[in-house]
Amino acid sequence: MSAPITSSAASSPVAHEPRPSSASTVQKTKIGATAGAWLRSLIYLGPALVLFALFSYRPFIHAIWLSLNVTDAAGEVVRFNGLNYYARIFNLDLAHPNDEFLRSIGLSFEFALMVVPLGIAAGVGLAQLAAVKVRGIRIFRTIFTSSIAISIASAGVIFGMLYSPVVGLMRWLVDLLQLPQPGVLDNFATALPAVALMTIWTSLGFNFIISLAGIQAIPQDVYESGALDGATGWTSFRHITLPLLSPTLLFLLVINTIGALQAFTQFNVLINGVGPQGSTNVFVYSTFRSFWYDNRYGFASGMSIVLFVILFVLSFIQFRGLDRRVHYG
């Protein structure tokens, strides 16, 4: 008789171990690569994060803490005050009714409405003119960008001399409007528009450069295709340039709005802040006076937090409301 046949697997004394799954190996490799990328990112971002923590995040948190407390003349916390400062800013404190700060917020928005639309429109208009390819156009581009090299303080001194009744360059405007005071900065109706005009001029260079870059980024074949359909001049600008320039316009809108609501230097240099009958007492200057003149550190901190919230909400609304209408090409 022949011997019974047995399988090699049954006769082998060594048991076979299951091989690891290839999917789990790939997953572990991806996790390791992601962790390594995060570690490298933190190493590169480390210096910047340290600077932001020391000079941005820590002061911001400290300002929130001060806004909830009453401080002494040295800035030391005396007692907890809760949300009383915020109630006083919005005139919700029935024990101390005062609408000065609400009016200053309104003046800031009024100033922004004067500066932002006109500033962007002037920058886009000059950029459209400077985008034309003719001989000597670089000279005009240099002239249009000249205001970006002048600081706001220096521009305030220049416009202060222009507005001065002693120099008399604005005498024609005073006579035309029949103003009771000899200078435009000394009258309630013209003080804020005069500061707005100076601010538009100082922001013109920046708005022009960004607008010109956006216009030059538009492909020329789009204009050629539009010209075949009869789109020239204003029609081309309205239906081709403006839609394709919408991302640039959104950027300028957000940046100019933030800059206008944070305006301080021009008010301090031109009018020393308040102006005739408080016509230029914008919110940032009111915060400055509360901190440096009145030594109300907690109250001024609360005003700065309110301004931050206003700018954050307004920027969020602008992005959410206008981003859907922006054409990113």
What does this structure look like?
α13 runs antiparallel to α14. The relative contact order is 0.11. This protein has two domains: 42 residues; 238 residues, Orthogonal Bundle (MetI-like fold). β1 and β2 form a beta hairpin. The N terminus is likely disordered. It has a two-stranded antiparallel ribbon with strand order 1-2. It is built from 14 helices and two strands, in the order ααββαααααααααααα. The chain is mostly helical and 329 residues long.
Please sum up the structure shown:
This protein is an all-alpha fold and 329 residues long. The protein has helices spanning 8-11, 22-67, 84-89, 100-130, 137-144, 152-163, 171-177, 191-216, 220-228, 234-244, 246-261, 265-270, 283-292, 297-322; strands at residues 69-71, 77-80.
Secondary-structure map:
Layout: H1 8-11, H2 22-67, E1 69-71, E2 77-80, H3 84-89, H4 100-130, H5 137-144, H6 152-163, H7 171-177, H8 191-216, H9 220-228, H10 234-244, H11 246-261, H12 265-270, H13 283-292, H14 297-322
Antiparallel strand pairs: 1-2
Which terms summarize this structure?
2 domains, 329 residues, 2 strands, two-stranded antiparallel ribbon, MetI-like fold, mainly alpha, disordered N terminus
